[in-house]
Predict the structure.
Amino acid sequence: MSNPRVVLAYSGGLDTSVAIRWMNEHKGVDVVACAVDVGQGVDDLEEIRQRGLECGAVESVVVDARQEFAEDFIAPALRANAMYMGKYPLVSALSRPLIVKHLVRVARETGAAGVAHGCTGKGNDQVRFEVGTMCLAPDLDTMAPIREWGLSRDAAIDYANERGIPIPVKSKASPYSIDENAWGRTAECGILEDPWAAPPEDVYERSVSVKDAPDEPEEVIIAFRSGLPVSLDGVELPLHELITEIDRRAGAHGIGRIDLIEDRLVGIKSREIYECPGAITLITAHRDLEDLCLEQELADHKRTEEGRYAQLIYNGLWWGPLKRGLDAFMNEANRYVNGEVRVELFKGSATVVGRRSDDSALYDYDMATYDEGDQFDQTLAEGFVKLWGLPLKTWAARAQQHGDAL
Ligand code: ARG
């Protein structure tokens, strides 16, 4: 009788490399390694696939999901301007549901009994992996070898050496715990755990320090169709390429560094450093275009739903019914978000300096102008103000009668 199979979310790093063997030894399962490229900057997917096998996986698969990640996971987040605590564009939280989707697919294809992830017990990612699996495949088991095992870095290296598991060359002792994808880069641990300590420059990889940013501003014109960016400076690009390109250009101006004391779902506060040049630039531009194209009540309501939407994603509820319902709302709200935004990239800031829309702007020059040609009928204002103020006028009169001074 062969062992049951489990599909492990494999990064190619030290922890998940040793987890393959550990699960085999301690849990009696055969591991299928599954690595998903979400734009974390892997040079060679095939190399990671091979490494999975060398570490003892019975099968090893890799998925280039960069386009899918942009179109099905980043795009809805951008339409919703999704930022957890108003600051964090949900980098890791967005990739987990996609990875779960592929783990489940591979589990079905290989007849596996469960899926596994390399998260610890202190973070949000374990929740996202496991709740995601509950939604997409309630019948599958989930395993968390790192959480169960609680192995230190040195012990993991010893474990690997004793068993001849090849330790990934890239695992030079980074002082930080990093997660990365097309929407940004996250860093925690080490000196960052002191919330008073300024983040050292070596935390950052995708952006220059504002001190070193060019002295000349750079302008970029981003065109949107139904709330999604479709071109940069007139050059049409598929979404995943456009995101990478704007990320590079904005990072060169020091844009998108975020230092956040974050409220984790597991109840603790943690200090996290994010680098999201492209995400911050695109959300800034998208929001601005919404101001031009959305009707007032819709815009106001959308702003309140955006926070809720970001929280759902952060808390691992991506595949749930409320997220699905809010997506319908966000898509409808974005229907006429069409046009162009001029963004100036300069010394750490992405600043909108102009916006226009040929067919979807609700800004009407003839209504807005104070110059000749004004079409706004000011005679209507007199009656409007009287009725608008009527409830307060009535209320204030009563207050006066009762000697209740305002
Ligand atoms: N705190 C962020 C989040 O919960 C980032 C997590 C990064 N994950 C990691 N394994 N380093 O989304």
